[in-house]
Write a structure and sequence with these properties.
By secondary structure, the chain is α/β, with parallel strands linked by helices. 37% of the residues lie in helices and 24% in strands. It has two domains: 108 residues, Enolase-like, N-terminal domain (Enolase-like, domain 1); 213 residues, Enolase-like C-terminal domain (TIM Barrel). Bound molecules: magnesium ion (MG). The site of magnesium ion (MG) has 6 residues, from loops.
């Protein structure tokens, strides 16, 4: 088996503002493995607020392949080997899993969702993300989103009046349902509750990560009172976190880069469903490679947030097709 690792900088169409700050793009690492005449690619997306870097991903991949020099054709055993190799490194592991799974799907000559024993329907709606920005940008962003049935609006600026103003401005142009992602940006539980009540009267469907992940008691307080479903993002990383948040959230945003890849996401979905919570499949800013990997799990989700390719300008993989606001999965 041979492999190559390449750095890539995925650029946003418009610099993207969220509660953590403004950015022009995201560091990506692309891994291509070649074995038995078949090549397959995987991706790690590395937003700056997370601990992994291009260097740490590269090192993880090199270290792994130094010990495990050949690709095992036994999928469960290669996935097990990967996850027991070292703790953490979830984006690096997701990258390697994506490459493994893509390789096995290519080898089996079938789409990955089929190899995983899943379906390509029914497909949930995909959200279209509107980052924080100036009010003047809103009409053109809304016009770009016209194919999508649900919007995702990034709030949590720290200024509740600005947050309300954003929603009021959006509502001048569209009445479409909105998911709000506060990215931990609301710090007082009472303010968050007031805000959620206000949003519930404006066709907002759910609130993602309203409070800082460390505010566990406040999150429980909010959960008991919120008129809208609350989804965990930063509060949950992998399968080990799911149980802890069942009395704090109504649903979970599962991302390959957070949990460590497709096998871990499947494990999480099983746990989340057992607790009768809702499932969103989300993403970091990712190229078509990681977006399509996550999309393979779509039939298990209530909603997907996989609009990355709509928001970036140099996505090297033209593989994601949106039809009527859904990510298509070919047979
Ligand atoms: Mg989020």
């Amino acid at each position: 088996m041979q492999y190559t690792v390449k750095d890539f900088f995925l650029e946003f169409k418009t610099p993207f503002a969220i509660a953590h700050g403004t950015r022009t793009g995201t560091d990506i690492v692309l891994l291509t493995i070649t074995h038995d005449g078949i090549s397959a690619t995987g991706e790690a997306s590395l937003p700056p607020y997370l601990p992994e870097t291009k260097e740490s991903v590269r090192r993880f991949i090199d270290d792994f392949f130094q010990v495990h020099t050949n690709l095992s054709e036994d999928i469960p055993s290669s996935i097990n080997t990967l996850h027991s190799f070292a703790a953490g490194h979830t984006a690096a592991k997701a990258c390697m899993e994506i490459a493994f799974w893509n390789w096995h799907a290519a080898k089996a000559k079938m789409p990955l969702w089929k190899l995983l024993g899943l379906n390509n329907q029914p497909l949930p709606d995909c959200t279209y993300t509107l980052g924080m920005g100036s009010e003047e940008e809103i009409p053109s962003k809304i016009s770009d989103s016209r194919e999508f049935k649900i919007l995702k609006v990034k709030l949590g600026s720290g200024d509740m009046e600005y947050d309300k103003q954003m929603i009021s401005t959006i509502r001048k142009y569209t009445g479409k349902p909105i998911c709000v992602d506060a990215n931990q940006g609301w710090t007082q539980k009472e303010d968050a509750l007031n805000m959620i009540s206000w949003l519930s009267e404006r066709n907002v469907k759910l609130i993602e990560q309203p409070l800082p992940k460390s505010a566990v008691a406040d999150q429980k307080w909010l959960f008991e009172r919120s008129p809208l479903p609350l989804f965990a993002d930063e509060s949950v990383q992998g399968p080990e976190d799911v149980d802890n948040i069942s009395k704090m959230f109504h649903g979970i945003n599962i991302k390959l880069m957070k949990c460590g890849g497709i096998s871990k996401a499947l494990e999480m979905i099983k746990l989340v469903r057992k607790l009768k919570l809702q499932v969103m499949i989300g993403s970091m800013s990712e190229t078509g490679c990681a977006i399509m990997a996550a999309a393979q799990l779509s039939s298990l989700a209530d909603l997907v947030d996989l609009d990355g390719p709509m928001l970036t300008k140099n996505n090297p993989f033209d593989v994601v097709k949106y039809v009527e606001g859904k990510v298509m999965l070919k047979d």
